[in-house]
Structures are given as C-alpha cells and as structure tokens.
Write a structure and sequence with these properties.
Layout: H1 9-12, H2 15-18, H3 49-60, E1 64-69, H4 88-105, E2 106-116, H5 121-132, E3 137-144, E4 160-167, H6 182-186, E5 217-218, E6 230-231
Helix pairs in contact: 3-4, 4-5
C-alpha cells in the first residue's frame, strides 16, 4: 500500500512509545463525572490530549463504539491556544500518534469520524489509510459549511468541508439509518392499490448501463409529457 512520507516521519512513529502513562487525578469538583474505570461514567479531562489519551487507554482499550474529533485544520484560524499554522510535516507528526492511540480505543464494530477541510484533507486521508488500513475506509462525507459564496476568494469559493469515516473493522461497521419523517411518508401514495405498498414517481434514469436494469414498462401515454412507469 502506498504510504505518505514527510520530514521526521520515523521520529513521529516513536512518539506514542515515548509518552509517559500518567495517572488521572480527580478534581475536587469533578466527582460527579464518575471514574475512569466505570463504563457508565463520564469524564472531563483537562490537559494535553496526547497524554490524556495515553492515560485513558488502559481503561477503554477496545471498548469505544464511536469517536469524533475535530482537529486543527492548520489554516491559522483556530483558537489562540492551538498552534494552527504548522508546516505540513509538523502537522502530520502531530496527528499520527493521536490517530494511533485512537485506533486502540475502538471496538471491532467501532468507527472514527474526523472533520477536515481541503488544506490538509488529502494528506490526512493517506495518513489514516496507513493507520486504520485502506480497506477500513468507509466514506468521505462532504458537508456544506456555508450557503453563500465567498466573494473575496482568490480563485474559487468553496462551501464544503469533509468528514473522513473509518471503521475499526469495515466488516463489522453498521451505520444506523434515520427513520422517514411524517412529511416524507406523506409524499408516498398508493392510488392503484399496489400490493407492494405506497410509492411515488421518481427519476428513473440509471447512472450506467447494466443488463439486469432492462425491462419492459407499461402505462405510458405518448401524448402526455409525464407518464407513470412501473416494471412488470
């Protein structure tokens, strides 16, 4: 599998082993958050996230169903306490050990979702391929981050960001589906009492040709601009 190379790559792969395993100390006002050994408890950890992950790993290794992270995009636009203007190699060296630790938290059916933009998104994709396995890549979810174009963009205004989704083991990954809303359900009718239930006319265009998609149709009216199509 192709890998990504960068300055100090070899040193970056040694970072996790060099991070000491620290003991979490409860805050006087933090007893309500439960304890690290409790599966039902919640924790609010203050400190360097790399050290926090290393400290939490003995308690939660292989037990986490879903991880969502929003790392610095390396665009010099994050909070002041982030070093959000790194060289690409420094950014990759920062991300690698955190991703390596996060992988160890996941259950076999677990998943990790990482938000990113175009600035580092393609580097991150290749890096995550190496850490989680390219075969465990599920999707690059593109989401619209703004509804108006940037009139001051130097070249082209982009209105999207990404969420990279990986499973710990893609064979075990299962994504829950949203139920149809009442409004969506109301758009389905069954005026012809079809035994298969309510239906609605949609775009019947195929994305590409395939032989199994060829079938005779009935119900067309040559003099009408619209016709209801139904396979036999």
């Amino acid at each position: 599998m192709p890998t990504l190379d960068w300055l100090n790559r070899d040193a970056a792969f040694q970072i996790v082993a060099a991070v000491p395993t620290r003991v979490l100390r409860p805050h006087a006002a933090g007893s309500r958050f439960g304890d690290a050994g409790s599966a039902a408890g919640n924790l609010l950890v203050q400190g360097d996230n790399l050290q926090a992950l290393k400290a939490l790993l003995p308690f939660y290794r292989g037990r986490v169903k879903c991880i969502f992270i929003d790392p610095p995009y390396n665009t010099k636009s994050a909070f002041e306490h982030y070093d959000d203007n790194l060289e690409h190699s420094q950014w990759l060296s920062m991300m690698l050990p955190r991703l390596q630790l996060l992988r160890e938290f996941l259950r076999e059916d677990g998943s990790i979702w990482v938000t990113i933009d175009d600035n580092e998104g393609h580097y991150l994709k290749v890096l995550m391929d190496e850490v989680f396995g390219r075969g465990n890549f599920a999707a690059n979810i593109v989401w619209q981050k703004s509804y108006t174009s940037n009139q001051t963009a130097q070249h082209i205004s982009d209105t999207h960001d990404h969420v990279l989704l990986y499973g710990r083991r893609i064979e075990e990954l299962s994504i829950g589906k949203l139920q149809r809303t009442d409004e969506q359900v109301a758009s389905f009718k069954n005026s012809d009492n079809d035994a298969r239930g309510p239906w609605k006319a949609e775009n019947l265009s195929a994305g590409k040709f395939y032989s199994a998609g060829q079938f005779p149709i009935t119900g067309c009216c040559a003099r009408s601009w619209w016709c209801a199509l139904r396979p036999r």
